Amino acid sequence: LPERIDDAKLPHIKFVNINIERKKKKMENVFSRTLLDKIEDRLKKKEGTIILQNRRGFSTQIYCEDCSEVETCDNCSVPMVYHINKNIIQCHYCGLVKDVPGACTNCGSLAIKYFGTGTERVEDELAYYFSSANITRVDSDSISRKAVLGKILIEFGKGDIDILVGTQMVSKGLDFSRVTLVGVIAAETTLWLPDFRADERTFQLLTQVSGRAGRSQVPGEVIIQTQNEKHFALQMVLKNDYYGFYNKELADRQKMGYPPFTRIALIETKDQSEKKARGAIYDFYNELKKFKKWLNISSPAYAVIARLKGNYRFHILIKSSKDDDPGGAVLRKAILDSFVEFNRKSRYKDVKLFYDIDPQSIM
Ligand SMILES: [Zn+2]
Ligand SMILES: [Zn+2]
């Protein structure tokens, strides 16, 4: 196992299955009794606690029980997020802000429910259970400038702040020996994203935040709340097994034809008119498919986020084998030749068309 630079002991990691705990009536809202007890213990000992929930806002979905609609952004096909402090709902993709709806905007029903836990709700519940503790939230809503974060970290290091709660901002660069407990509200926030890097992101985030516990001679403790404790990425976090994770991840990537064994390219069309965005992607596809002998080309489809900032979006994913096309020359030629033909022939050539080789996100 890799040793830690500061020679500190590896943290003791434990999963708490929230489904089982709920059946045993050992859940208090978003917290397991186990995690609450550990936090209380640290408060008594004047040791620091970090709580991770990798979602901003209070509730991440507003749902109508009568018509089953989720309140979505006017410009994007994503749910609006409720922010309790500003008392607004906001789109995290385009920034649109609206008043909190008093009733369902689709059917007018008053039976609207708030689902999904964000950092504001975690902070709110912590303040309820530990009313005398000094709790500070760290996310891009509360931290506008780097200087503010620096000041908070100094206070936390000195012991003026008992509990830091936040998004992945709390997983990095917080090496304080007084932190002996890390709690993760839900391991799943990055796990089911429709992106082939979801497992890797989950493994990295949980490993990173776990490493914040016990950077001293006192071994730290990590409590990860989850509904998927058997998931491979989580098991590797538990064992702190970096090599085990990457061995299997690489085997899976090879089998599925994903990087680093292939080069991938994402083609995107976007337009305010759905018809034009779709027409453009199909016209481009008709040129691109002439290269099907050499490349693995997906059929055109809606992007995962089908509408963003008022534009409809369509995607094609291309995989190019590094054995057959080591330098990526075939891939680039296919895209550029198709683009030239598209521009010459398509009646949708005024539609915005992008390509991204080795994209960081395919959503
Ligand atoms: Zn939006
Ligand atoms: Zn409704």
Describe the structure in your own words:
It is built from nine helices and 18 strands. The model has no long low-confidence stretch (mean pLDDT 92). It has a six-stranded parallel beta sheet, sandwiched between helices. Helix 5 (198-210) packs parallel to helix 6 and helix 8 crosses helix 9 (329-345). It has two domains: 12-56 and 118-253, 3-Layer(aba) Sandwich (Rossmann fold), CATH 3.40.50; 262-357, Alpha-Beta Plaits (2-Layer Sandwich). 30% of the residues lie in helices and 26% in strands. It has helices at residues 18-23, 33-45, 119-129, 146-158, 198-210, 232-238, 242-256, 274-288, 329-345, and strands spanning 12-17, 27-28, 31-32, 48-52, 59-64, 81-83, 88-90, 97-99, 112-117, 135-138, 163-166, 179-184, 221-226, 262-271, 296-297, 301-308, 311-321, 352-357. It is of the alpha/beta class and 363 residues long. Residues 64, 66-67, 69, 104, 106-107, 109 line the site of one zinc ion. One zinc ion binds next to loops.
Mean pLDDT: 92
Write down the CATH topology of the largest domain: Rossmann fold
Total beta strand runs: 18
Label the overall shape.
globular
List of distinct ligands in this structure: zinc ion
End-to-end gap? 35 Å
Strand content: 25-35%
Q: What is the radius of gyration computed over CA atoms, rounded to a whole number of angstroms? A: 24 Å
CATH class division of the largest domain: Alpha Beta
Give me the number of helical elements.
Answer: 9
Largest sheet: 6 strands, parallel
